[in-house]
Amino acid sequence: MTERRPPRLRPARRDRAQVTSLELFFDLVYVLAVTQCSTLMADDPSWTRLAEGLAVLALLWWSWGGYAWLTSLIDPEEGAVRILMFGAMAAALVTSLCVPEAFADLGLAFALAYGVLRVAHLGLYTIASRGEPELRRSIADLAAGTAIGLGLLVAASFVDGWPKGALWAAALLFDFGVPFFAGISGWQLMPEHFAERYGLFIIIALGESVVAIGVGAGADISVGVVVAAVVGMAILAAMWWAYFDVVALIVVERLVATPPGREQNALARDAWSYLHLPLVAGIVLVAFGLRTTLAHFGDALGAIPAVALLGGAALYLIGHVAVRLRVMGTLNRQRLLTAVLLLVLLPVGSRIPALSAAAIVAAAMCGVVAYEAHHFADLRDRVRHH
After folding, report:
1. What is the pLDDT of residues 116-165, one digit of tens each?
2. Helix pair 223-244, 312-328: axis angle to 10 deg
3. Is 2 exposed, middle or buried (0-12, 13-18, 19+ CB in 10 A)?
4. CA 15, CA 250: separation in Å to the nearest integer?
C-alpha cells in the first residue's frame, strides 16, 4: 500500500534559513515603494511633504515587516502560499503607485490597496496557524489593530488639513502599538532567516539611494556632478559598512542565542521591527538630500534638504545606537557623538554649497567607520573570521 501524500496546495513550515527567490522577488516591489516615498519628498520639498513621506514609509515598512515574520514561519514557495504571495505583491504594487498622491486625490485608493495587502497577510498567517492556538490569539489581536488602523486611513482620505494628519498618526499608532501591548508569545520565527530579511531591506534602501544619485545627476554630466556622485557614493558605502561589517553579524548571533518564545520574539520586535525603521528612514532621507545635491551641487543646500542629508545620516547612526543598546545593552558612544555633531552642523549645512554639505556628511560617516575599524580591530577580526 502506497503512502498517501499531502495535498500539493497545503502550506509547509519553513525548514531552512536561506532566503528564497520568491522572497527576493517580493522585495523588489518594495524597491518601488521606497523610491516613491523619496519622490513624494523631493517633488515639492516642504516640511509637510517630509512628514508625509516618512509617514507613508513607516506604514509600508510595517506591512513589509509583517511578511518577513510570516515567511520566517512558512515556506512562501510551497502550496497555495505561492499564489497568495503573488496576490500580495500586486496589492503592494498598487499601494506603491498611489504613494505620491496618498495624502491627496489617491488617498482612498491607497488605503484600500494597503488594506488588501494587510488582509492577505492576515489570511496567510491564519492558514499557517492551524493547530497553534496561542499563535491564533496573537493573530486575532493583530487583526483588531489592523482593522482600526485601516478604518482610520479610509476616514483620513475624506478630510484635509490637520484632521488628515491626526488620523494618519492614529493609524500608525494602532499598527505599531498592538504588537507592543498585546501578547507576543505565540509568534514564531527562524532567527537567521528573520535577520537576513531585514538586512536585505537595508540593501533595498541603499540601492534606492544610488538611484537617487542618478536621478539628481540627470543627463548633464559635469565635473561637479561627478565629484558630487563620488561623495554621495562614499556616504552610502560608509552606511553599508556601518551595518554589514560587524553589526549585522553580532545582532543575529544574539538573536539566535536568545531563548525562543516570548524573550526572542520581544527582541526581534524591538530591535528589528521597531528600531530598524530609523535606519531605513535615515537612508531614505539621505537619498532625498543626495538627489538635491546632485541637481544643485553649487547652490546653498537649504533647510529642508539639509535636514534630510545631515539629519538623515544622524538618524541612521542613532538607529544603530538604539539597536545596539537593545540587543547588547551597551552604548555606542562614537556613533552617538557623530550623530550629535551632524545635528549641530545643520545650520551650517543649510547655508553652504550642497557639495560641501555632502562632503561634511561623507567625512563624518567615513571617519566613524574608520575609527571603529582601527580601534576595534581585534574584535572585528574575531566576529568576521572566527
Report:
1. 999 999 888 888 777 778 888 888 888 888 999 999 999 999 999 999 99
2. 10
3. exposed
4. 23
**CB 157 within 8 Å of CB 111:** yes
> How many helices (DSSP H) and strands (DSSP E) are in the chain?
17, 0
Range 177-197 burial, b when 16+ CB lie within 10 A, else e? ebbeeeebebbbbbbbbbbbb
- Name the burial class of residue 5, with classes exposed (0-12), middle (13-18) and buried (19+) by CB atoms within 10 angstroms of its CB: exposed
**What span, in angstroms and rounded, lies between the C-alpha atoms of 180 and 270?**
9
Expressed in angstroms, the distance from the first to the final Cα of the chain is 51
Q: For 295-328, how does the pLDDT look when each residue is reduced to its tens digit (9 = 90+)?
A: 888 888 889 999 999 999 999 999 999 999 999 9
Residue 182 grid cell: 498585546
Could you state, in order of their start, the residue ranges of all structural domains in the chain? Answer: 12-188, 190-386
DSSP tag of 162: H
Q: Residue 215 and residue 147: Cα distance in Å, rounded?
A: 38
CA 209 to CA 232: how far, in whole Å? 9
Helices (H), 218-353: 223-244, 247-257, 262-268, 276-295, 303-306, 312-328, 333-344, 346-351
Q: Helix 107-128 and helix 133-156: axis angle, to 10°? A: 180
DSSP assignment letter at 300: B
* pLDDT in the model for residue 140: 85
- For helices 21-43 and 276-295, the axis angle rounded to 10 degrees is 50
CA distances from 227 to 305, 359, 372 (A): 19, 10, 26
Regarding pTM above 0.90, the answer is: yes
SS (H, E, C) 80-138: CHHHHHHHHHHHHHHHHHCHHHCCCCCHHHHHHHHHHHHHHHHHHHHHHCCCCHHHHHH
